[in-house]
Please model this.
Amino acid sequence: MTRQTRSLSVERQSRADAVDHVRLDYEGRFLRRKRLLTEGGLAVIVDLPETTSLEDGDALVLEDGTRIGVVAADEPLLEITGATLPRLAWHIGNRHTPCRIEADRLLIRQDHVLAAMLEGLGASVRPVMAPFAPEGGAYGHGRTMGHAHGPDEDPHHAH
Model:
């Protein structure tokens, strides 16, 4: 039997003392109000004041102080390697595509069009299963959301 409770808050990087966990993919970690089922079978209704990007290691803190740890789930990604990683990263960023940047590889969500483009630029591209935690950039914590260049600019402008 599951018990439903509401989370009151999110604590960053504090899942060490969590009594249970939720395993969520990149999209699943972007939420405001949602019913989640923990690995231990507890139904939790997340009801946050605003849409929040949860990160691997965060904790949902329930009304009674219980911490439910957030774990980034493995999901299908493309691993990009090659001698020109900065150039490849530029092309990915130029397409406003979220990208996880590591010292020796880039990770993006599976996309056959981007894979073909990157291979055409000399990259090695292979499918992998891994947690996805892309760079957030200057415009969003953990997310690459819209941006504006000044107070008078239309935020829906074209590049």
